[in-house]
Amino acid sequence: MTAEDRNPVRENRLILEKELKLKIAFITTGLDTGGAEVFLIDLLKSLKASGVDPLVISLTGKGVHHDGIVEIGVPVIALEGYNALMLPLLKKRVLKEVKRFAPDLIQGWMYHGNYIASDVGARLGVPVAWSVHHSVSDISKEKPVLRLLLGGSKKRSSEARFIQYCSQVSRTQHERIGFDATRGRIIPNGFDCDKFSPDEWKRATARRRLGVVAEHFLIAHIGRYHPMKDHANFLRAARQALDVDDRFRFFLIGPEVDAYNAELVHLRRELGIEYAVHFLGLRNDVDRLMHAFDLVSTSSAWGEAFPIVLGEAMACGIPCTATAIGDCHYLIGETGSIVPPRDPEALASAWVELMLEDATDRRTRSQAARKRILENFSIDAIAEQFLALYRDTLPAAKGDASHQHVKYS
């Protein structure tokens, strides 16, 4: 570039934009299947559109969502070959990557991500925020490693500039076990209402793929195989629902929820519901299959905070039922049903009641479900709540040109 080609005004503007652009390093436990991981992708997409410059560091490898994040233009550093027990090695590697990126803020994501974020932030003198996507109704039910991590986290929770909880229940439970109550902020999960929206053509196509007929009433359970999800409760409820009406068909989707799961296969056979219950395993086309279902249901016994799958279904105009765990009632409102955990009879009754609604009432319920997501939980509105917290935390996010960037030693 010659002296004549230079445009000092444009160069100064570009320098100023670069100076004020908010850089955030997201440190997440992992990128495998789960509501927190799905929410992270949608949040990153919206934040990036708002001018945030993000980096994602995954502590446990690429996972299934690595490519999706890269596709929206966010770089990902996936620490392959590590596991959650290798914290000292993880800290050293993450420290190196964060220092190179030089962020204005480090955003922890889930428990291990939060813990590592605090360590790295303290070493580099960078502000840290936490994000919690779990509930702890009974800490004794958690794995020993997680109980240990929770103990260490509560001691360090005051180091975070803020702790974002995705549900009121989650915040209350964590503060009860010792997390700093002055740091807590509630921002619920957000949903991409363009990606998840009613579509009759997609519905017909998905139902053909699943091999069902018009009179079948399809109920989906979407979640990994874990005791907290209580798949047995769901299957026992399926038996009771089929005793009332044989048109029910059930599709269970998620890691290890497949024909190789001996416990689930045995229980399905024992209950005599093999003809009506299908295990689809881990799928990468849930957003397309979703349209086939008439109802989406959870059956969890504990651990839920704000299930992503329910919001995605509602955005598609699909009513939901859930057990009374976390903030499921707040999410669903009056558009679906909430039942006690570990009560298959109540769960089956809720399904039957919704199935037997007339077409007009069902259409009204479907419209109300989508409207609730659009008005309260759209991803852009939720991302703006994160941005507001960042603005409050960092003067640079407010456009304060006098802000002094962190100096990395």
Descriptors for this entry?
409 residues, alpha/beta, Rossmann fold, 7-stranded parallel beta sheet, 6-stranded parallel beta sheet, 16 helices, 45% helix, disordered N terminus, disordered C terminus
Summary?
Helix content is 45%, strand content 14%. By secondary structure, the protein is α/β, with parallel strands linked by helices.
Write the layout of secondary structure elements.
Blueprint: H1 8-20, E1 23-28, H2 35-49, E2 53-58, H3 66-71, E3 76-78, H4 87-101, E4 105-109, H5 110-124, E5 128-132, H6 144-156, E6 163-165, H7 168-176, E7 184-186, H8 200-210, E8 217-222, H9 231-244, E9 248-253, H10 262-271, E10 277-281, H11 286-289, E11 295-297, H12 308-315, E12 320-323, H13 328-332, E13 337-339, H14 344-355, H15 359-376, H16 379-393
Parallel strand pairs: 1-2, 1-4, 2-3, 4-5, 5-6, 6-7, 8-9, 8-11, 9-10, 11-12, 12-13
Radius of gyration, taken over Cα atoms and rounded to an integer in Å: 23 Å
Judged by helices, strands and strand pairing, the structural class is alpha/beta
**Uncertain spans:** 1-20, 396-407
* Count of domain modules: 2
CATH architecture of the largest domain: 3-Layer(aba) Sandwich
CATH first level of the largest domain: Alpha Beta
Measured distance between first and last alpha carbons: 34 Å
The biggest beta sheet is recorded as:
7 strands, parallel
